[in-house]
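Check my protein:
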Amino acid sequence: MKIFPAIDIKDGKCVRLSQGSFQSVTTYSEDPLKVAKRWQAEGAEWLHVVDLDGARTGSPNPVNLQVLRQIIRQTGLPVQFGGGVRSAEVVERMIGIGAARVVLGTAVAQNPQLAEGIFTMYGEKAVVGVDARDGMVSIQGWQHTLNEDAAAFVARMAALGAKRFVFTDIARDGMLQGVNTQMLLHIAQAAGSCPLIASGGVSGPDDITALAQLAAERMPTLEGVIVGKALYAGALALPDALRLAKGE
């Protein structure tokens, strides 16, 4: 199982939100590149970078994109990027910048034809972000909730050709309350054979151990977990997370 340290960028700074609320912002670093290099030095094999401004406005923030470029160029690590990706053109642009994977939520939720075209064109590089609030799909930077069950949405995307999913339980994101494994199992069932990445709620080492065990025993498609607040708050050390993810 992989660990994806999260670097959420707002106005060029590394921040964390609680439950996706822009009224609840904690700034952890003025220099996200420095944070990326720290995670690299501690053994990170992937990074998960989010343009929070882009997620809210619908188009990537130029300041945050410059940070993304620096992270990709100066660490050389594969980056999974999301936030404001609402068209095939933006997917192409992000891949051109060097993103290894691009996460889409709003665009594919609202436009099945666009979704099918992106899945066909970009395959493994296109990841569907499934953000759920009380089990229902949330879009536009978590500002709006659709009348669609998250598992039904996953099944619909898989039928259109989606190859990989990131599932976030919004209520637990940034709250250090533990991962919603029951919902994760429900989503994994809907995703079929597609790899699934968990996000939201990791509170410490025990959650990583539980997820690694879940992947080994009941959910072989669980590819990894995105970890943010637990790393920044000091509740979990990245080297420990990497070790536990391997079942050590």
Summary: The radius of gyration is 16 Å. Residues 62-75 form the longest helix (14 residues). The chain has eleven helices and twelve strands. The mean pLDDT is 92.
